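Check out a protein:
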Amino acid sequence: MRRIDPDAQIALLERHQRALLNALPYGLLAISLLVTIAAHASHHLLLTAGLTVLAAGWLLWMATLHPRWLARPLTLTIFFAGMLVIAAALVLTSGWYGIFAWTGYLFSALALADPRARAAGVAATALVLGTAQHGGVPSGSVGSWVSWSTIVLANFVIAGGFIWAASIDDLRHDRRDSALEEITEVNRRLEASLKENAALHRQLVAQAREAGVLDERQRMAREIHDTLAQGLTGIITQLAAASLAREDPAEREHHLAAAAELARESLREARRSVAAMTPEALRDSQLPDALRQVAARWSELHDVPAHVTSTGAARPLRPEIEVALLRTAQEALTNIAKHAHATRVGVTLSYIGDVVTLDVRDDGIGFARDCADGVPGERGGFGLTAMRQRALALGGKLEIESEIAGGTAVSASIPAIAMVAHGSAGDSLAPAVQESLGPGTPSFT
């Protein structure tokens, strides 16, 4: 069965309605003329016929041929007044033209938008139609005036009631149309917003992908620096020491063995870094013990005592926090071995409330302040930048104090977020930014 489109059906009915309303005044005018002729109701048939032609011409010229004129309030008023005057003249020649005069109600209800104009149109039409129903204008008797007034009032009340009810329906219809238009506009805006949001979503996804690629590049750069670069630096140092110990085979073998061990250790750390795994020092140990292992290994390689101290109640922290602090300690020790010419090194890990602080201090030659800010120079470079990035990424900070011939102190402070039970390193960190802390002063023994 073919489904009928409701909108198309309504549009068809509206076209038929408009055609009927356009033809109805002509039909009623013709009926009035025919009944008048058949009933011999007019003593001035030529005058009646002439007025009928005038009424038809008025309708044709003003309404049929120029329908847009009726959209203007002034032209509409002229048309309506002219039609009522002609209808009144016809009613005076024949009461049967009350049939045609009824169209005044039709135009009042459909054409006059202003409520006061509509009421005036209904009253004027009721006056003309009541005169036709009364059989003409009232005579001088009181009874004639009373009957005429009663008929006119009854026409006004009945027609006014129907038109008032129709006006309410029209108002409801207009409100429904307005609501539908608003809903259509809201839907249009919503559709536009959805398209815009989809475009923004695609843009955000692309930006997130780019940011993820950039973050991964930075992570790999830091890990490569903290594993391969530091390991290669140690290997070069041991090989250089071995070349200087040619006269002492035992010492030479010791340095070569240390270089080989460093190579194997660096290879393991590089593999763990590529896989984003926990550093080997933290795999089976807590952060304080891992720092002691790193410091002991460093002291053994460089013959510089490094003392590790832990203060406060040690507790397991998020893996990314412990990795950042361990890598910071390794980078600081590497810089000391390369540049400081130190004789003592102190490493202090402090658990202070909701902050964990790592301090690495040496008694070496120190360096200029601009190098501490990561400006390329004797002590500047990627290592300091990587340490600072690690701290900032976790809501912490990195501070460096140094003076020529006065040693150097590196202090990293990070919010001490404990590891949640069943948590993982992939969980997101709670945002936290700690106020500036002065660098600690580790004790030397």
Q: What stands out?
A: The first helix runs from residue 6 to 39.
